[in-house]
Fold this sequence. Notes:
The protein is an all-beta fold. The protein has 1 helix and 24 strands. The protein has one helix at residues 263-268; strands at 5-8, 17-23, 26-31, 36-40, 46-51, 56-61, 67-71, 76-80, 85-90, 99-104, 110-114, 130-135, 141-148, 151-156, 162-167, 172-178, 184-192, 202-204, 210-213, 221-224, 230-234, 239-246, 252-258, 273-278. The radius of gyration is 17 Å and the shape is globular.
Amino acid sequence: MQTLQTLIxxxxxxxxxxxxxxxxxxxxxxxxxxxxxxxxxxxGDLRTExxxxxxxxxxxxxxxxxxxxxxxxxxxxxxxDGKDLHDLAELGDVAVFCLSDAIADSQGRIYVGxxxxxxxxxxxxxxxxxxxxxxxxxxxxxxxADGLKFPNGMVITPDGRTLIVAETEGFRLTAYDVDAxxxxxxxxxxxxxxxxxxxDGICLxxxxxxxxxxxxxxxxxxxxxxxxxxxxTIALVGHAYAVMLGGPDARHLFICTSASHDPAEIAVRxxxxxxxxxxxxxxxxxx
Length: 287
């Protein structure tokens, strides 16, 4: 792996970056605490694509090019067609407190997790179990998995038949079979992670290994094969919250970092940066 480079530094006004997705020739991502969707080129050309009146999370792209994301605290999915913002689905019947990461598949179905506790109100009692909801293209919502411990980053394999989710409070990657209708079944352990690793955002490479962001400490980023073998690690001064493989040949590993995820601290001392390194194995699946 080449040396990490800073793609965007603290002088660009970032607050907290999440949900990176490579699209065309740019990395799209959500700046949660700036209430915005942004994108950046490999040359560091940053632009704000959309400013929002709420906290967004869970970025994805539909087959028609529309951008989808959540109004995280109001438990709703939105769709932006490049000009207008549309209501897509309400998830209040299946989720509690706040929506986490999401991914859209090649059929236009969106999978989104339920964080299960309230970042903005630590006194709110967490829920015992969390769910993954599926939002169909017509906006219908179904609960397709439950009993998870903070489902966070998700990836879908290139054949569309497996969904892998990071269980942050479960210290593991969990896999499901995806059937033709988008249902999830055959829950199984994809990888038990080393002690102290709480997975957040993840991405998949062409060997089936998963790059994992670990905001709990060091290593900040690790590459894990199915079964749990760790092949690569990256140490950072701050914390890593999300990763994505992209670039012209899908060999650029983008890392969303920050010194903290605490909203009060970010409001006065934002520390978000976007880092990038070249890796040997290209990305795969839903980028």
